[in-house]
């Protein structure tokens, strides 16, 4: 019998009374390894009530004590790093190295959250008028909620709840139903780190459970990461219900390759950034834009890409694992067929990919198209698989125009030896995260994760200073004290003479 994933309500791991359960499968084998419940209305109401109650005391806990919970949590996550990565690999199919990276990037956000006393500092100006001072405090919002995708089951929950809770909020997490075991382990360790009862709650499920959070008046802020269609829906419904919402969505990330770029760096970086993690990264490079004579490198890149091998999580030679589900595999293969039908040149075909020992895995081999144009469906859609589309232009201006016309704006990069070309690109490109000779420019948590355009709906981004602002309110105080009111508190001989 497969394991039943518990809910985490009011400081207890509890088995749901739900009649609806979702199978969690190992994508390399199709083995059902667990079942996640669709939390009932009663269970979700209990989670909200507990989070509301816990907020009343947690917001009063000294900020340095809140920071210490994060320090202990960071140490526990590091201690259990490999064990969490193994759980993660079992439900996502990621290779062990990739799974460890997923956990590590989450740990970095917890480290950032441990700096909460300085992150919360407000501003002060003395004598805004004679004898009047103005200063601001950063106060928590209340109950916040997070809805996370399948592709980073450690990193993305850790983008959310540690910072929200360090700010003094309480938090309800609704992880992806496709890989809920990793978040469950993260929560067990959070409890072990000394997080008080009720500060964090976990409900499982899908649309119905998300809708509950979107409509529940006690939930003040929603963080979402996932696909564009769901992100737009969540942003609209959440803001209509007067909530603060940040929704990080899908992407189509371009890498511009100038003819003066370091060729061997381009080849190795492009291969890793396009098919690594089976292309299931919101910052994966899915379009390579070859400028001028750089197009001559396309055959060599295709040859390198063809050598990349997917495989099982513990195979040290495997570059990446299977796709998350048979449906995801089918979707990617359909796009490959569509690309052929719409006239792109299939340079490397990843369909019908077999991996020894895993006959039932959701494998798609590395795939590369040449002669892709911007009117093709394979260019317009986020394929979310190990598929690289090569396009060709004659100038940096043309490359910029292509990237800026694309509706997404998560990440982009340029490979060049020219500072002037890089400067022009970084300044003019309408994308939120730019790499210069860096293929996947995900910022460390002391910056913020700043997708633009169709890749983000909201105002304040994840982690960094913006993350703190998202999970808090600013209170601005203007104060005046009258000197004539100073009392003789220390007895007759200690009177302060202010005259
Ligand atoms: P998804 O949108 O299918 O699911 C994300 C979450 O939304 C899950 O928790 C799911 O249960 C919930 N959900 C699904 N359908 C829903 C509906 N109709 N109504 C309400 N909630 C619903 O996304 P996914 O497939 O899990 O993740 C992959 C997507 O996430 C890709 O598009 C990827 O680009 C994106 N992503 C973006 C970022 C970023 O920072 N921009 C990071 C990681 C992933």
TrEMBL record:
InterPro entries found in the cross-reference section: Ald_DH/histidinol_DH, Ald_DH_C, Ald_DH_CS_CYS, Ald_DH_N, Aldehyde_DH_dom, MeMal-semiAld_DH
Keyword NAD: yes
Pfam family, one: Aldedh
Protein name: methylmalonate-semialdehyde dehydrogenase (CoA acylating)
Keywords: NAD, Oxidoreductase
Residues annotated as domain Aldehyde dehydrogenase: 13-477
Enzyme nomenclature, EC number: 1.2.1.27
Family in the record: Belongs to the aldehyde dehydrogenase family.
